[in-house]
C-alpha cells in the first residue's frame, strides 16, 4: 500500500512537473512573442534615428534626418505629379507624339466617344498604375513607421504636389 501510494505520488509529481515545464515553455514563447509585439510602436513618436525602408537607411544625425524628410516630401510631390499624368495619360501621350489634344477617353460620355481598346494604350495604363502603386506603397511604409516627421513630410509633399499639379486634375474625379 505504501508502495502504490508512493508510486501514485511519483506519477502525480511527474505529471505536475511535466505540465509546469510545458506551461513554462509556453509562457516563454508567448512572452517572447509579446516582447516582439511590444517593441513595435503603436503610437506616433518623434525620433531622428528611425530607419526608412531598411536598417542601412537610418539617419545618424539631424542633417540626415532632415534629408530623409526632404526625400519624402519630394517623393510625395512626385506621386501627385504621376497621378496627374495618369489621369491625363492619353493627352500626355498624344502631346508627346505631337498629335494634338484627344477629347475622348475610356468609359466617359456616350458610346460614340468611348475609345476602342488598344494593347499599346493598355500597356501604358498598366505601367503607370504599377508605378503609382509602387510609389504609394513606399509612402505608406514611411507613414507606418509612426515617425511624426516622416508622416508630416508625406503630408507636406502631398500638399506641394497638389499645389503644383492640382490644376491638371481639376476636371478629374480621381483626386
Automatic annotation (TrEMBL):
GO-annotated cellular components: plasma membrane
Top-rank taxon: Eukaryota
Transmembrane segments: 64-85, 122-144, 150-170
Record membrane topology: Multi-pass membrane protein
GO molecular function, one term: copper ion transmembrane transporter activity
Principal location: membrane
Family: Belongs to the copper transporter (Ctr) (TC 1.A.56) family. SLC31A subfamily.
Name this polypeptide is given: Copper transport protein
Origin organism lineage: Eukaryota, Fungi, Dikarya, Ascomycota, Pezizomycotina
